[in-house]
Amino acid sequence: MGLLLWLAFGAAQAEWGVNMAPGATEVSRSVFDLHMTIFWICVVIGVVVFGAMFWSMLIHRRSTGQEPAHFHESTTVEILWTVVPLVILVLMAIPATKTLIDIYDSSESELDIQITGYQWKWQYKYLGQDVEFFSNLTTPAEQINNKAEKGEHYLLEVDEPLVVPAGTKVRFLITSADVIHSWWVPALAVKKDAIPGFVNESWTRVDEPGLYRGQCAELCGKDHGFMPIVVEVKTKADFATWLAERKQASAAEKELTSKEWSQEELMARGEKTYNTTCAACHQASGEGLPPMFPALKGSAIATGPVEEHIGIVVNGKPGTSMAAFGKQLSEVDIAAIITYERNAWGNKVGDMVTPKDILTFKQAQE
Amino acid sequence: MSAVIDTDHKGHGHAGDDHHHGPAKGLMRWVLTTNHKDIGTMYLWFSFAMFLLGGSMAMVIRAELFQPGLQIVQPEFFNQMTTMHGLIMVFGAVMPAFVGLANWMIPLMIGAPDMALPRMNNFSFWLLPAAFGLLVSTLFTAGGGPNFGWTFYAPLSTTYAPESVTFFIFAIHLMGISSIMGAINVVATILNLRAPGMTLMKMPLFVWTWLITAFLLIAVMPVLAGCVTMMLMDIHFGTSFFSAAGGGDPVLFQHVFWFFGHPEVYIMILPAFGAVSSIIPAFARKPLFGYTSMVYATASIAFLSFIVWAHHMFTVGIPLTGELFFMYATLLIAVPTGVKVFNWASTMWRGSMTFETPMLFAVAFVILFTIGGFSGLMLAIAPADFQYHDTYFVVAHFHYVLVPGAIFGIFASAYFWLPKWTGHMYDETLGKLHFWMSFIGMNMAFFPMHFVGLAGMPRRIPDYNMMFANFNMVSSIGAFMFGATQLLFLFIVIKCIRGGKPAAAKPWDGADGLEWTVPSPAPYHTFQTPPEVK
């Protein structure tokens, strides 16, 4: 049995981590210290209580000829073991209170980032900077389905990490667009629920540049286990460069709306965006996972009047998991996705939806 | 557990009773029965069936988590398994098992002829198969069964739920009605039907803890009913209790749910405290240490359970002062819980102990429940909870209080009272084997969960990074072992019902209490003339 276990573990090429890591921020280190303090207090109490019990179990047995004693109460002892734990608890509560007050002080931040949870990805918006993007899982389906070797950061890798500057107090404003999610990066000791319709605050200040990984911590539906978080901490100078590049890129993105698009270009872009945004539910094959997630292949909407198709993508379908993508995606991406859906998997509608059509549709709605 | 059938014509304990009769014949006996022993037996069998069903769902979960990658089930079904496992274990296995023990033992312990409200007793049992039939049937519907976790947080359980959620809501209502009626019955029985001389402070602790549990049930099951009713309104009648878009708040759901949910965890453990408080003195051959403080500690725990609910919600963004209040209140629970553990340890101290199966389970209960208490203490520290919350550390914590807590408490009770129920001694060797296999399997399954949780593995995920792989494999092997072992328990119980060494009226020389004054197996009707308690 032991040998079998050993072989199994060898094959699993994994580690034996048993404890929390101290993490990368002052807060995470003080949380770690708290954790270890309470742990050792519990160990000491455990050794005393279990020690007494094991001693008793070894010595006070009938098989050793022990005669039972008859005592059954002692006010002194009972007061003592009520008061002593109370004192220990107060001693534990003091440092915990200090750390908690510190964690709740999100004032004087130098950078504000809005984090929005979606089923099943994160959106990061740099407030006042005109930069926003989605962060999707990049682990390929082949790895998840055991058809390819799993990479080192299996399920903990994304296309676009959240980038923050080192040594800067960054405030997070956390919310959700659908169900409750929870944004958690262990190394930062930040875990805050993303609640639809409400905004929660949290903050961090990371000293060292590096990559820090986390996951959604609140059950949020089918792909709850597949919406990781990656935070890339850059030096202040690198961060400034990165931010400037992102601003340029987002300006360029906006211009794409007025560009003349060909069917091929839209199909190519549509396939890519469909696979990152839509395929989790409707599947890459367009066959969906009925009845929760309907098929698009041959569906009435994807092969019917184009206005209805645009409408459902832009506004979503209330009461279902179909989100309103009008606010999530650019006009270009929506146009590309719709064009793709109407012409892929044997849906041969043949028409083409341009970014301008989407813009017109949105303006008509307003 | 049903060997009372054999005793119908013996008619002992019926002196001066002119309409004595045994149980009816055939299947209708079980449908129409108002006898507390029959109903207790049905509750126990039902809960064991649910334990095996919920357990097989746990086996699916552990099989999928045996290795990284998706092998056996898809995430949709995985979520249904975690949800149903939790619901079935909480509402189908643990709670009915304690109601079954209450039905069997409370009248015997206080010298009552039956429960105070026998017809309601029958109805509260028969609601359960209906409720669970309904709940389990949702797994076969298009769109699948409940997949939002046993805590069913809105809006995942409302706007984003599968259609079967309405069946789930109705099932919860039925379970709630059943529990409330069961609880009313327990209160009415204990307060009205005690034998002359059986003052409150002479009652066995199992009766005391059940009395307090019953009040908890009456207080919080209506809250759960309100919670699911609000869900129903949101889903079908256009209200917005839990939706910010209509002026509601998803966090309101969590406040209401946990106002039910925290007392609920004590509902699942207090009766076990009571049973263990009878078992340890019996095998230590020494009276329970600190009876009075045990009663007060139980009452304090019950009171505190109402003011700590938001410690399940430290990460939802409650204000600092709220966070501090709930942290301090939660830490306070450690005091009465500590008192109980110290009392059990002192009862053992300088006793004359033997370790038959009930005692093994009882001692393991004290030690392992205390480990669950330690992790509970760690979770109470709000800043540290930000790291533990919704990780496998929490899964390890609540399985340590529920498996070696509630479930070992139930096993200890079952072995302790099986001779009284069946009239036969169970097979001691097999009983011990069942204990050790359960003990090793359970620790192997749940201890490594502390490690992966601290290392950063969230709960309720079907797949994980390789850094969690080793301990997950250990957990799965332990879980398979624990699961398989429970079939041995089934075998032991059936063997005990069918035969074995005849049990004396009082098979445990150190045991104390009225239940040991009636013959084994307990006759169909007992204490029709109340005993005198001095």
From TrEMBL, chain A:
Molecular function terms from GO: copper ion binding; cytochrome-c oxidase activity; heme binding; oxidoreductase activity
Membrane topology of the entry: Multi-pass membrane protein
Binding note for cofactor: Binds a copper A center.
Domain Cytochrome oxidase subunit II transmembrane region profile: 12-107
GO CC annotation: plasma membrane
Cofactors demanded by this protein: Cu cation
EC number: 7.1.1.9
Tree of life domain: Bacteria
Domain Cytochrome oxidase subunit II copper A binding: 108-245
Subcellular location: Cell membrane; Membrane
InterPro entries to which the protein is assigned, alphabetical: CcO_II, CcO_II-like_C, Copper_CuA, Cupredoxin, Cyt_c-like_dom, Cyt_c-like_dom_sf, Cyt_c_oxidase_su2, Cyt_c_oxidase_su2_TM_dom
Keyword terms: Copper, Electron transport, Heme, Iron, Membrane, Metal-binding, Respiratory chain, Translocase, Transmembrane, Transmembrane helix, Transport
Catalytic activity annotation: 4 Fe(II)-[cytochrome c] + O2 + 8 H(+)(in) = 4 Fe(III)-[cytochrome c] + 2 H2O + 4 H(+)(out)
Parts of the chain that traverse the membrane: 38-58, 79-97
Sequence ranges assigned to domain Cytochrome c in this UniProt record: 265-345
Membership in a protein family: Belongs to the cytochrome c oxidase subunit 2 family.
Purpose: Subunits I and II form the functional core of the enzyme complex. Electrons originating in cytochrome c are transferred via heme a and Cu(A) to the binuclear center formed by heme a3 and Cu(B).
Name of the featured protein: Cytochrome c oxidase subunit 2
Native organism: Pseudomonas taeanensis MS-3
UniProtKB/TrEMBL annotation, chain B:
UniProt keyword annotation of Ribosomal protein present: no
Spans through the membrane: 42-63, 83-104, 125-145, 165-193, 205-233, 265-283, 295-314, 326-346, 358-382, 394-418, 439-457, 477-497
Residue numbers spanned by region Disordered: 1-21
A matching Pfam family: COX1
GO cellular component, one term: plasma membrane
GO molecular function: cytochrome-c oxidase activity; heme binding; metal ion binding
GO biological process terms held by the UniProt record: electron transport coupled proton transport; oxidative phosphorylation; respiratory electron transport chain
CDD domains: Cyt_c_Oxidase_I
Stated role: Cytochrome c oxidase is the component of the respiratory chain that catalyzes the reduction of oxygen to water. Subunits 1-3 form the functional core of the enzyme complex. CO I is the catalytic subunit of the enzyme. Electrons originating in cytochrome c are transferred via the copper A center of subunit 2 and heme A of subunit 1 to the bimetallic center formed by heme A3 and copper B.
Protein name according to UniProt: Cytochrome c oxidase subunit 1
